[in-house]
């Protein structure tokens, strides 16, 4: 009969600012009490963890540290919720006068509705009921599911049940050991061991050079701040360092010199008796029995005897060398 009475009375319920204000005040005080209980439990848990570390029971200390981390998150959630209740308590008149939910109060109200079904705060259920009468059941259901993403992201993260990482657990144990003066060496995690191994392998594979660069290398190596400028290629041909200057009329000069040499030799050396023409061949052997040297100049035959005004072998060789030089030019 009592349940039927409650259901009938629920049909005729209406939004009341006074009821919501009283419920917000009670919910804020309840959050304060719950937060103090959590803090008290944390102090007891820290002493237990320190005693476990002192006795060498590290595995049990790890499990207790996980519970401690979860309660630390719950303490922060109660702190945020207490602040939101105080804010809505002071703005209740503004909420009562507006038909729609004010834009600057959507996040606090959505956070309270989200926490009403997840935390054990009886007074919070009355607040959620009043906001449901004010803005409708569908609007409240969206914030219960957080489909509109209007709930404070940090509050959602605090109430999300996740397993803490190994590094977070070890950091908590290390802080408790330092706080209570327990000698405990923090072991390295798998990530830290891998990072150390990679650092050692990298440093061993690429040894750092300790010898400074020589003066020659410093002069030759270009500066990192100044760009290397290559010499411009000259369009003019390179100069010849041998001293030779090409002459475009070299062929004419060669033939003129040969003509002059031949004329001077022919004037200074008469042909021997019996030779009417230089084109006639001479005997191949000298009277002394030595072979004659054939003449390479045009108009000269072989020489029988070197007399006054005649050319000897040395002069002939010199003339032949000069001729070859002029010919190579």
From TrEMBL:
Q: A Gene Ontology biological process annotation?
A: protein transport
Q: Which organism is it from?
A: Perkinsus marinus (strain ATCC 50983 / TXsc)
**Per the record, where are the segments of Polar residues compositional bias?**
215-236
List the biased-composition ranges (Low complexity).
203-214
Stated name of the protein: Mjk13.15 protein, putative
User: What lineage is on file?
Assistant: Eukaryota, Sar, Alveolata, Perkinsozoa, Perkinsea
Q: Which Pfam families match?
A: Ist1 (PF03398)
Write out the similarity annotation.
Belongs to the IST1 family.
> What are the boundaries of the region Disordered?
203-248, 265-299
| Domain of life (superkingdom) | Eukaryota
């Amino acid at each position: 009969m009592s349940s039927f009475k409650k259901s009938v009375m629920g049909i005729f319920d209406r939004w009341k600012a006074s009821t919501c204000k009283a419920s917000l005040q009670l919910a804020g005080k309840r959050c304060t009490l719950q937060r103090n209980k959590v803090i008290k439990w944390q102090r007891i848990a820290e002493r237990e963890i320190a005693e476990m570390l002192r006795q060498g029971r590290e595995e049990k200390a790890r499990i207790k540290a996980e519970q401690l981390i979860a309660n630390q998150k719950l303490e922060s959630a109660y702190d945020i919720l207490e602040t939101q209740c105080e804010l809505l308590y002071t703005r209740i008149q503004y909420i009562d006068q507006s038909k729609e939910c004010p834009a600057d109060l959507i996040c606090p109200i959505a956070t309270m509705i989200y926490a009403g079904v997840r935390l054990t705060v009886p007074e919070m259920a009355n607040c959620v009921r009043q906001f449901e009468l004010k803005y409708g059941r569908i609007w409240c259901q969206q914030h219960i599911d957080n489909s509109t993403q209007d709930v404070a992201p940090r509050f959602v993260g605090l109430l999300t049940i996740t397993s803490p990482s190994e590094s977070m657990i070890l950091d908590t144990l290390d802080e408790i050991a330092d706080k209570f003066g327990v000698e405990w060496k923090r072991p390295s995690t798998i990530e830290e061991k891998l990072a150390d191994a990679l650092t050692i392998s990298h440093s061993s594979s690429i040894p750092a050079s300790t010898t400074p660069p020589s003066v020659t290398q410093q002069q030759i190596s270009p500066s990192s701040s100044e760009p290397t400028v290559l010499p411009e290629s000259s369009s003019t041909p390179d100069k010849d360092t041998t001293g030779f200057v090409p002459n475009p009329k070299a062929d004419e000069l060669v033939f003129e010199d040969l003509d002059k040499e031949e004329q001077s030799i022919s004037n200074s050396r008469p042909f021997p008796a019996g030779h009417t023409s230089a084109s006639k061949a001479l005997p191949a052997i000298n009277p002394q029995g030595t072979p004659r040297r054939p003449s390479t100049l045009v108009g000269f035959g072989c020489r029988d005897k070197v007399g006054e005004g005649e050319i000897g072998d040395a002069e002939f060789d010199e003339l032949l060398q000069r001729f070859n030089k002029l010919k190579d030019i």
